[in-house]
Amino acid sequence: MNRRSRIRDTAGVVAASAAALVAVQGSSAGAAADESGAAGRTTVCVGTRPTGSLPGPEGQESSLYRVLGYVEKRGETRYASVFTGLSVDEDARTADVYRIPSEEFDADVCAHAEKGIRVRLHDTDVTARRLQALVETTGDRMDRWDGRFDLREVGPDPAGFVFFGVDDPAKADLILKKDLGPFWAKHIRVEYVGQASLD
Question: Which of 36, 45, 78, 104 suits a disulfide with 160, CB 3.0-4.6 Å?
Fold first, then answer.
């Protein structure tokens, strides 16, 4: 079974060769665009950096997770103005990186990917910071839609949207898209979530 999981929650600029970055058109690019609401494409590179050359968390020897750690750190600091999030496909040894298109960020990520690690860079049009701001604003007013629907969960997704867990998805989807406005209408996903149990 192919396991996918989502991750969320200081070298100078390096140039990548033209051969290292490949724009992928078709189904995978379309899937990324559908998830994020962006109109974009997916760019792919495969790491060539020697295994073990990146620092990793204590006790973590996996090349894949060292690359993910590097991307997350750079995305949350130097490239916060373009970074959206990342997820991992462990079976395929692949990191999925979501970002507003940036040649500089792509070059940095691809130049630091260890040998054999595949990186897919997906276009979005929203940053992690902006997603988190909506989550925090909504979380501070969880009762905002009381009487219209029950908001039970809210959280960011690295692919470029905010997840809303509600009691009535069809009704909530219409209300949220109207209340949050046209930009957020394409960056929200509404799903049914059951009432929390005290058990």
Answer: 36
CA atoms within 13 A on the CB side of 167: 10
Distance CA 51, CA 66 (A): 10
**Lowest mean pLDDT: which of 5-9, 29-33, 61-65, 66-70?**
29-33
Among residues 33, 34, 129, the alpha carbon closest in space to that of 76 is found at 129
Q: With the CA atoms of 101, 102, 105 and 108 taken in that order, what torsion angle do they form, in degrees rounded to the nearest 10?
A: 110
pTM of structure: 0.77
Contacts of 127 (CB under 8 A, 6+ apart): 80, 81, 82, 83, 84, 100
As a dihedral over the C-alpha atoms of residue 188, residue 193, residue 195, residue 199, rounded to 10 degrees, the angle is -120
- Find out whether 24 and 42 touch, Cβ atoms under 8 Å: yes
**6 near 155, Cβ under 8 Å?**
no
> Model confidence over 115-148: pLDDT tens digits?
999 999 999 999 999 999 999 999 888 899 999 9
Q: What is the 3-state secondary structure (H, E, C) of 156-191?
A: EECCCEEEEEECCHHHHHHHHHHHHCHHHHCCEEEE
